[in-house]
Amino acid sequence: MDCIFCKIVRGEIPSNKVYENKNFFAFLDIGPVNRGHTLIIPKKHYKNLLEMPEEELKGYMEAIQKVSKAILQGVNADGISINMSNEPAAGQVVMHAHFHIIPRLKNDGLKLWPQSRYKEGEAEEIKNKITNSLE
Ligand code: 5GP
Ligand code: ZN
Asked: For residue 69, what are the domain limits?
């Protein structure tokens, strides 16, 4: 498949591999937020988390935890942020599922996103829309 991350898994594009097992592959992000910023991907091509079959998810989370612990210790970080963008509207640029595992340092100055407040009654309305959509 003509996908940059599939090519990385196949070794057709070089990467700094951090970890791999039968189903997952982790490598340094080419543009790190902090040193040690790692991407962890399923070896099979899925567009993003929303398209992954349930049977892949347990192994994915186990691999994420394993790599997160190694990053924390390996680069002597103070914490770990884990992020995934699903769909371009959420900032997904590479259309092969990937979690970002980002080592965090005290006072690294990174801010996530600005927050807002719900208006009166709005939170209940939104909560109902979500719970009514659960499959
Ligand atoms: P997204 O914005 O889709 O969540 O993140 C894509 C990430 O892939 C970016 O952080 C970008 O730096 C990284 N990336 C894109 N192309 C390559 C590549 O060829 N090699 C590596 N190691 N990382 C890449
Ligand atoms: Zn792919």
From this structure: 4-133
CB 29 within 8 A of CB 39: yes
Any ligand 1 atom below 6 A from CB of 30: yes
Contacts of 9 (CB under 8 A, 6+ apart): 25, 41, 43
From 66, 54, 59, select the one nearest 22 (Cα to Cα): 59
Tally the residues of the chain: 135
Give this prediction's pTM.
0.96
CATH of the domain at 122: 3.30.428.10
Residue nearest (by alpha carbon) to ligand 1 atom 16: 30
- Show the tokens assigned to 19: 């970890």
pLDDT tens-digit map of 56-102: 999 999 999 999 999 999 999 999 999 999 999 999 999 999 999 99
